[in-house]
Amino acid sequence: MGKRRGGLSDPEVLENFYRRHVGAITRFVARRVDDPHTVADLVAEVFLAVLDSGHTYRAGLGSETAWLYGIARNVVSAEYRRVAREAERVRRVSGRRLLDADDIARLEEQLDAESPGRRALKALAQLPDGERAVMELVAVDQLGVGEAAAALGIRQVTARVRLHRARKALRGADVVVPEMYTVGGEA
User: Fold this and answer.
1) Tens of pLDDT along 28-67?
2) Max CA-CA distance within the chain?
3) What contacts 24+ positions apart, CB below 8 Å, involve 122-127?
4) Residue 1 CA to its chain's centroid (Å)
5) CA–CA dist 83, 77 (Å, integer)
6) E strand segments, 53-182
7) Alpha-carbon torsion 119, 121, 122, 128, what sign?
8) What is the model's pTM?
9) pLDDT of res. 61
10) In whole angstroms, how far apart are CA 166 and each of 19, 65, 159?
11) What is the mean pLDDT of the segment spanning 8-25?
């Protein structure tokens, strides 16, 4: 190919290159893939990759055929990985039963029942992380202040301060949080 910089951007050079190598690349791919549509797609991908990476060919490092086979090998390998990922997704889903009408009805009921919690979480998104964490555990998950403090690994007094700040920030929002929880006799 001689000087490759910009060479494959010339339609005539690209056409000649394609005509010289399309048969070999088709055979290369057909030895590795047994679906004719996939073979055609992968051969096209190889030549698209040639357009994108034509400037990387260095004659001193090997023939253009070897360079092209390297590209084809990468394209076929990517297809193998894609097929393996798809097969894994199918395998993971195949053993699961689909939802029937009763399951869907139960889930819809649960979604309706949890809509106040979703609204509360949305309103809490405006709070700083520490205050939001305490408020989520108390208002949404219905833990007491002591339990929330334990879950977060903070002192109970810190949890109370954060809860107070969160309540103050949320005044007027559609979130109802009881002023004080008592857990295990703690006020």
Assistant:
1) 999 898 899 999 999 999 999 998 887 777 777 777 888 8
2) 86
3) 123/170, 123/173, 123/174, 123/175, 124/166, 124/170, 124/175, 126/169, 127/166, 127/169, 127/170
4) 41
5) 10
6) none
7) positive
8) 0.49
9) 75
10) 70, 67, 10
11) 86
